[in-house]
């Protein structure tokens, strides 16, 4: 009967069949009631962990599945008192068992926390447990049938995931520096001391590891060092900083820290590297305590690795943000210094400009000693350039004043519609000269408007200059209208338009759109930025809309602050200077007729987008009896070269359509023009610019400003070297054309000797070689033009 009862119970059933039950409180098996036998069979036949507690002393009978739950307490627990076996958790179990025995009603707890000493330490464990009364043959409750399953991994895993999730909050924060982020991370970890009793974040600081933050070890004092030196690394943190996790088994001897489910002493800690983004040298080390209530298994180690990765991500983000903030602060400081420099230098420029412009104006207006035509032309160019320089200085000074918050505004009531129309009218001659239409639609406003006239003049002239620079067909339209309490100025064109990727930065200071067709590349790059800043200074704003290839519309809005009586309109000298400068973009030279140069005068092609510079260079070079052809940009120059190659190309660097570098590369890439001498002119000073020009293929590079004598000397030298190279090429070609001399007699030897001497004299000082081959019967002259050149015979 005993064998039948325990049959099919696996290893535990076999042990139960051999157990002397008479020595237990429930007596020998033959005395067991049918109800008890039925309950035992149910337990042993189940693959689910089940425990039967029978009798007043809660004698234990269980199956194989339950034996795995109690670990090394099995098999001693069989037939024993559960109050002894589970003594460490009996305070939790007793109320549940007593309730089921007393009421006769089953209970269920989904995640019951129990302390189990099943692995050599007091372990935190969780079980889903049901306690149901087990009745005897008389219907009385004689025992408790317990069905349970361990859910420790699920409960602990969810808890650890919450910690990792909570760490993501400071990891995403961008308002704190590295120290603050580390403190936030440790504060979050400190709320989960059941899994991480203590933690410390150490970051690299030169050759040492510096503690950025810590939690849970506040009372440890000097046991947790502030800095760790490689020579004195008692915690072995530098091994972890090298990329390998380290277990610290004697943490209890170093720190008096408790933790886990029941605040037991922490015995073990781990040091984990904080990985960097480049997977090279770790950022530092995370030192973390291991819960004394859980074993350091693979799952626990994986959690610590995820914890270190989360901390590393937060630290990297904080470092990146701090670097970005430091870089922004440095740029802001640089911008402030640059603004102060522009302000100071602009003020300094005004004195020499005044001393230049005053005498120039006096000389041009002097009727007592009038200038001759040549001298007048020179001084008019100087006067126009001085006015342009003054305009640049004024723009820089205005912009720096706005940036520094020191801009002076002198608003006064004016007829804004009339003033806008007259400012636009100043540009009419230049617009119509470009074969464009200027449409001005500025109907009278309801009343005079309080604005600063100088500010409004800068806004309108900058927008019109910009429209004329980038519009080649169609029209430019200026419109002013009142929209409620706002005056709205729109300047639209049918020009080349602006690419979508350039629109967000169009109003940035010093931003210039590269590689687009324009009438000129001159400018400081602050015109549109100044428009927006001045509009905002008036209480409004500036916006832009554009379609590539269709045109652009700029809109400036200012508050329509009314005034009773309009004052007279101010002088518009700045607008006239801007219009005169814009008109200079339209001075496109006509191509020189395709006829060869007469006499000894060399033919020089000048490519420059500034009309005054073209006129100056033509007058300067023509004075040396050289014939000069002009081109307004690189593409026009290339077409002229291919049409009728000049003797020398003199080109600017910054030009529309095709710049000087691209022009030189195109010339050097064509076999027909490869030997053309090229001199580059540029306002871009510095060794880098000169090297770039020479690498592009230029023979010489001249930085503006230059003296007339210097430029003439460089041109004359380039032409002389070009003629020498051409003469040598012709003579070498003549010698190479004599492939062989075959004859006999003394006359042949003399001729051959003469040719050889002439060739050697010609090639003296070069890398060329002259060799006589063939002997007396068949002599031949052989030479090479250099070590890399092909031989000619």
Topology (elements, then pairings):
Blueprint: H1 2-6, H2 10-18, H3 34-45, E1 50-54, E2 59-62, H4 64-69, H5 82-85, H6 90-103, E3 107-116, E4 123-135, E5 141-150, H7 152-172, H8 178-190, E6 199-205, E7 208-215, E8 227-228, H9 237-241, E9 246-248, H10 251-254, E10 258-259, E11 264-265, E12 269-274, E13 284-289, H11 298-365, H12 373-403, E14 412-414, H13 416-426, H14 428-433, E15 437-441, E16 448-451, H15 453-470, E17 475-483, E18 486-493, H16 527-537, E19 541-547, E20 551-559, E21 562-563, H17 573-584, E22 603-607, H18 611-622, E23 627-631, H19 634-643, E24 648-652, H20 660-668, E25 678-682, H21 687-696, E26 700-703, H22 708-737, H23 746-762, E27 769-773, E28 780-784, E29 791-792
Parallel strand pairs: 15-17, 22-23, 22-24, 24-25, 25-26
Antiparallel strand pairs: 1-2, 1-5, 3-4, 4-5, 6-7, 6-13, 7-8, 9-12, 10-11, 12-13, 14-16, 16-21, 17-18, 18-20, 19-20, 27-28, 28-29
What does this molecule look like?
Strand 24 (648-652), helix 20 and strand 25 form a beta-alpha-beta unit. The radius of gyration is 48 Å and the shape is elongated. The model is unreliable at 593-599, 739-746 and 785-793 (pLDDT under 50). The protein has five domains: 2-150, Beta-Lactamase, CATH 3.30.450; 156-327, GAF domain (Beta-Lactamase); 409-584, Histidine kinase-like ATPase, C-terminal domain (Heat Shock Protein 90); 603-723, Rossmann fold; 738-792, no CATH class. The termini are far apart. The longest helix has 68 residues, at 298-365. The strands form seven sheets. A six-stranded antiparallel beta sheet has the order 8-7-6-13-12-9. By secondary structure, the protein is α+β, with helices and mostly antiparallel strands.
